[in-house]
Amino acid sequence: MLDLYENLASQIKCPTDHLDLLKSIIPGKLVPILLYCSTWSTPKDIAKELGLPLEKIELDINKLFKDGMISRNKKYFKTRSFYGIINTLLGEGKLEQLANRDRAKIVDFYMQSRIQIYDRYIDQGRLKASSRVLTTGEALKHHEHLHAAGSSAIVTQDEAYNILNRANNYALVSCSCRLTFRNCHKPINTCINLNESANELLERGIGRQITLEECQEILTIADREGLVHIAISAPGQSDYALCSCCSCCCHDLQALLKYNRSNWVQKANVIVQDDPQKCINCFNCVERCVFGARKNINEQLVYNPELCYGCGLCITSCPAGAITLKKR
């Protein structure tokens, strides 16, 4: 059986120092199925190859799919990479049994792997960026020219709402980043997966189906909690999720702020501008800005527009109405 695990580890690119973890999360009886599914395969193909009853293979395949070990494309199944498996297990809170040291090790593997993978996607032109910041709807409502300017120089579209409105299905899931990194106590139930991504999660029994109205309520709560709205993409999956992100846990904001991956996160199509005459130097906006664009220097507000990503969190925290939007 050890040879089978070693073969599987090689197939799914599992580092040798994580072989014990691989053995602990995948029952030995299911390893032959995962080995056979190195390419897209049907349960019928697997049953024939392994000489097992089709009914048993279908049950095992269904379990592997629900556990996040394999991907499904209609009637075909394929074993996920070790990174993909770990991404799912961490993000769904299924590795809590690990000792703190072992968990920290696998979290580091996950983040370093994600950086390598998404750097490659962007370098190869498969993705323009991993994600993009969306201006909060609450910020747009606060903007003093929102209703007067129509669609002129002031951007009036709520892009987050437009993304949601175009989607045909919504699944509310726990924030995979906050479950993975556990660096804060911000709300967990804030991530909205869309369309095919939502369908797959619901089929796996992850999250719950919600309405467009519930989506809007979640975004409003996220704004109040100081979370940045971000649309997440992957190759072939544009805007597959609308997340509400903190800088300490979000994989993309960490990549931007901690690993200097400025090409990962696109800025919103608006930027904020200050009215110094109205500013009362309360510094609420400094606390809300996760991008470091606003600082308190010698009890004076200093704003660097080059660092503004247009999220709008500063606008909804300003009691003086000193911050507005303009087109980037």
Automatic annotation (TrEMBL):
Record GO terms (molecular function): iron-sulfur cluster binding; metal ion binding
Keyword Metal-binding: yes
Pfam family of the protein (one): Fer4
TM ranges: none
SUPFAM superfamilies: 4Fe-4S ferredoxins
Keyword check for DNA-binding: no
Coiled-coil region list: none
Domain of life: Bacteria
Keywords: Iron, Iron-sulfur, Metal-binding
Domain 4Fe-4S ferredoxin-type: 270-293, 299-328
Identification of the protein by name: 4Fe-4S binding domain-containing protein
